[in-house]
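Table S2 (continued). Query chain:
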Amino acid sequence: MTSATMDRSEFRHVLLSGTIVGVVTAAAVILYLLVARLLSPGMVTSLLETVLVLAGGVAAAFLPGFFAGSRTTQGVASAAAMGLWGTIVFMAIDIILLRPFKAYPWTWDWWYLPVWWMLGTFLAWMGGVVTAGRAAHGGDVSIPALALPVVVGAALTALVLTLARLHIYLPVAAGAGFLLVLTILAVAVIVRKG
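Corresponding output:
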């Protein structure tokens, strides 16, 4: 294994990589807000929002594992730390840039910010586990290869929920499906090692 593929957990690297994750997350949220505000409600808007939710999920879940070169427990922990720092960077951007524009109701603060850092850290942790598991079996650890089964699973979950007429907003259904499939894949990696 070359040093380029080894776990990277240096403090500066974790902070720099987490900052990139936070900025990418903020960009996805801003694009989502623009689509939601500028386009009239309908299927096209809902599909665009869903694509942005899935793209944001892929970035939050797999960029940290990519930056950390997750191969061992240390790399997975570094990915989770990058995810946590990314959520802190996002929250700073959110508070400084989005609040003055009244992007969404700030009555959400009591639950929104804590849930955001927990979700961002969890996604990065699970993405790091999936990355390390794929690497342990000699598989392709590129972000598109890692993300494909998760995105397909999320799309199928959203489709099932839509066909079941559960009246769940399509981007929310896709986001929930993304989280569910990613968690299942990470648990499968852990079970396989045990």
